[in-house]
Amino acid sequence: MRLHRRAFTGSIVATLIAGLRPAGADEKTPPAPGDDGFTLLEARPGAVPLLPAPAAQTKIWGFGGDVPGPLLRVRLGQEIKARLINKLDQPTALHWRGMRIANEIDGAAGLVHKSLAPGESRDFRFTPPDAGTFFYQPLIQPFSGEQLGRGLQGVVIVDEPKPIFSDSELILVLDDWRLDAKGQIVPDFDHPADVLRQGRLGAVGSVNARAKPAPLTFAPGARLRLRLVNAATARIMSLYLPGGDLKAIALDGQFCDPFEPHDRTLPLGPGARCDLLLDLAPTENQSFKLILRGEAELPDLTLLEIRTKGAVRPPAPPIAAPPLNPLLPAEIRLEKSKRLDLVIAGGATRTTPSRYKPTGEALRRVWSINGRSSTGLDGPPLFSVKKGSPVTLGLVNKSLFAQAIHVQGHVVRLLHDLDDGWEPYWRDSVIVPPKRTKHIAFVADNPGKWLVASAILDHFANGLAAWFEVV
User: What region holds the Plastocyanin-like domain (predicted)?
Assistant: First the structure.
């Protein structure tokens, strides 16, 4: 996917963490929970070796002063206990991306609950209803973009009751960073040129925010489970995955029938996740690569390489369809659904002068849904429906830029363009190409006030947001 973007500073670098990898690969030990069993998510400044030595460490904001933050991992049916502590100089709030949990826990700050002021803390206790790969990140207007862009994010894994077979697991948090010549984050968040176009993109690509090591090595024929997370604030990542036998088994935390990505290419919007099963080639000296496709003047970037070496592993069992979530509806009664088009407009046009740089309130009105610019925290709801009602939304993208639209608190089906069928997987966000329309459907089964907004945070903070209510 080729997207327009402004010029970047800094060199083009691929990075890979030593942590959050399988045993035997310098795995980090996550912070121990507090005495009361709560994992501490302390939002504070820190520094990480984002670029290879001898470059200086990059100053970041992270949970526990690190990127990614502590891995939260439970088995389905177990409780998550986390304590958010705000040691920043601005308010913050936490969003549990893709988790269908109670509105008072995951609702937007300012719409459902108060934000967390500097020095305050908040406890989270909940039992996730679904197994899968999820993501936690800030959700507070207008600070979400800066806070995520400086590194405030982490991964939640809810393990299925019967583990899916693999020899090893890789948790791969993909990101891009805008750095200056000294390797420090460029503080031009909410820049008009980004807001008007695709959003803030960075020239430094990373996996888990660490300096790039040598390629990883596994036995020929080994089966790996790759959990991919797009942690970027704006980049819709086009990932090319050559080598080995590859099947996607889950999207946005929900299992699906296994399939090979079309042309071995996987598009992931900001905050999106995908679980893959990779069977490596059964001979030595073969490789699998994770390649981030370039855009505009940026070339393709190899984020990860895995090579085969050593004794051949006995053949793994065939990849079987994982158990689908029994809590999700087998069908959606489209003929009985609440129907509404969301017309997405704004941003730069072909006639926008290059010198146009809106600021203040003009910047906040760059994007709109159905002619209204909003932070998603004000005004009446887009719609209100009773719990259990089916909903069909037409996402009409009138702009020149791809959009990634997130529906909070729910998962949706992407409808076929030419009939009333749907894709055989669930998503919590969908990509809508420029000048195109996509339709989604879901059952509004989670009571509360929920955002429907851009996952591109520059657009979210500057008009492309609204909310709906389930009563």
Answer: 55-162, 180-282, 352-470
CA-CA-CA-CA torsion sign (192, 110, 229, 257): negative
State the pLDDT at residue 347: 97
Q: What sign does the dihedral 345-351-354-355 (CA atoms) show? A: negative
SS3 193: helix
Q: What burial letters (b/e) apply to 146-167, b meaning 16+ CB within 10 Å?
A: bbbbbbbbbbbbbebeeebebb
Q: For 230-260, what is each residue's pLDDT tens digit?
A: 999 999 999 999 999 999 999 999 999 999 9
Report helix, strand and coil shares of the chain as percent, to nearest 5.
Answer: 5, 40, 55
Q: Coil, helix or strand for 258?
A: strand
- Residue 372 DSSP label: B
Q: What is the set of domains in the chain, with CATH numbers?
A: 334-470 (2.60.40.420)
Q: Residue 423: what residue type?
A: E
pTM over 0.85: yes
Contacting residues for 414 by C-beta, under 8 A, at least 6 apart: 422, 423, 425, 427, 430, 438, 439, 440
Determine the length of the chain.
471
Report the Cα–Cα distance between both ends of the chain, in Å, rounded. Answer: 39
Distance CA 335, CA 391 (A): 10
Beta-sheet strand order (sheet of 465-470): 384-385, 465-470, 448-454, 403-407, 429-432
DSSP-assigned beta bridge partners for residue 259: 248
The answer to whether the CB of 194 falls within 8 A of the CB of 146 is no
E-assigned strand segments in 293-337: 301-308
Sign of CA dihedral 244, 74, 91, 85: negative
